[in-house]
Amino acid sequence: MSDCPGEYELRDIVHTVRYQGLVIVIDHVPAEVCTVCGDILFKPETVRRIEEIIRSRTAPSQLVPLYEYA
Ligand SMILES: [Zn+2]
User: Fold this and answer.
1) What pTM was computed for the model?
2) For the chain, what are the domain ranges?
3) How far apart are CA 10 and CA 42, in angstroms?
4) How close is the Cα of 30 to the center of ligand 1, in Å?
């Protein structure tokens, strides 16, 4: 979608989303990551899984320290 010359490679990333005012962090999400600009692409089934996790409201496996920059 851009003129970036980078190539995408499969990596496990930490994905952070804000949902209904909550910050939700999901670790080890498989994603295609551009080696140059860091652009991230998810497969459709990964997006579905992420939405499932967010909506499931099951207890998280870990709590993450959250800091405010300001
Ligand atoms: Zn790129």
Assistant:
1) 0.85
2) 8-56
3) 10
4) 17
